[in-house]
Amino acid sequence: MMDGMTTAPGQLPVAHQPPRHPLDPDPAPATKARAVFALGLIGALTGLFVGGVVPATVALQLARQARREAYASGGYLTGSARLRRGERMAWTGLALAALAVVTLVVIGVVRYAEAPFGQDFSSNVD
Hints:
transmembrane; 2 strands; transmembrane helix; membrane; DUF4190 domain-containing protein
């Protein structure tokens, strides 16, 4: 075993934090972070149907506002994890929508290239 190292049973000591000032606001969850998460989820779920572009774009705009408000609040607005997840899902929804559009364009170009050109006459016409 290791000599000289001992561990004491029980809980670890907790660092003492100074008391809060009575006029400090209580930490509150950011409502925009919840909205970003919901809109990002909708954007990710409907991204392949190209309908996810609108909620994903709104989610990214709200995320910018939520970050500014959280910074200005001095740490009293919580919900940064939910905000990050919502942003990731919004970007995923936009990527899925772009993938769907590119796929549809490629399919359309291939079908257009396979279509016959000019007028199709019957076999007995010169």
